[in-house]
Design a protein that fits this description.
Radius of gyration: 19 Å
Distance between the termini: 36 Å
Structural class: mainly alpha
Helix content: over 70%
Number of strands: 0
Strand content: under 5%
Number of domains: 1
Largest sheet: none
Order of helices and strands: HHHHHHHH
């Protein structure tokens, strides 16, 4: 059954009005918007999880929050498909995560001047990046579809949740499968290698 009233997360920095505006952009009515929203969140979760993110749910939240804020601020989105824009933002969020993991950036004491808006070059780069992101996501979903139901659910379940909930869920998952935590990690590592190989082959076509 489709959730027809997706709720704003309690820890979100968005206002309810911004969240409602986002839903309005995703579908012509509440049911269509709810379906598109849930599908989009699952795609973003998969994008981050399969890249080894420790908290794919948090990165998904950050991506959704950023897009919703930009929409509420009146930013013009240069793409006919809003999902493409989400993928582009997700790619930037992932890049920032990699940078934070390797460097500590010192903020300047004087704020940088605000940009007056995107240049044609910015638009061109963004269009290329979102197209590439969309293709990669399409390949991820295509390759996941080739997995057995058990393998696909295992991959998604393993990377679901964050923090303490993630640890407990993984312990419970290992117990359900009759595996030790190490055996479960090895099994997931093999599945990720299999999935990565499939995605790389898909991207070549």
């Amino acid at each position: 059954m489709i959730e027809t009233s997706p709720q704003l997360k309690k820890n979100s920095a968005l206002t309810q009005a911004s969240f409602e505006q986002l839903l309005a952009c995703l579908g012509p009515d509440r049911e269509a918007a709810a379906s598109a929203y849930l599908e989009l969140r699952q795609a973003l979760f998969t994008y981050f999880a399969l890249r080894g993110a420790t908290s794919p749910e948090e990165l998904t939240d950050e991506t959704v929050d950023r897009v919703a804020r930009r929409l509420s601020e009146g930013q013009i989105i240069f793409t006919a498909n809003l999902k493409n824009y989400f993928y582009g933002v997700a790619r930037n969020v992932w890049r920032e995560t990699l940078v934070k993991a390797n460097t500590v950036t010192q903020l300047p004491e004087t704020p940088l001047p605000l940009s007056s808006g995107p240049t044609p070059h910015d638009v061109m780069v963004e269009t290329l990046e979102t197209a590439e992101s969309e293709k990669r996501l399409g390949c991820l979903q295509k390759c996941l579809a080739q997995f057995s139901d058990e393998e696909r659910e295992l991959v998604l379940s393993y990377y679901r949740d964050s923090g303490g909930a993630k640890i407990e869920k993984r312990k419970a998952l290992a117990q359900t499968l009759g595996l030790s935590p190490d055996s479960l990690r090895h099994k997931l590592a093999r599945l990720r290698l299999k999935l990565g190989s499939c995605v790389r082959q898909c991207l070549k076509t």
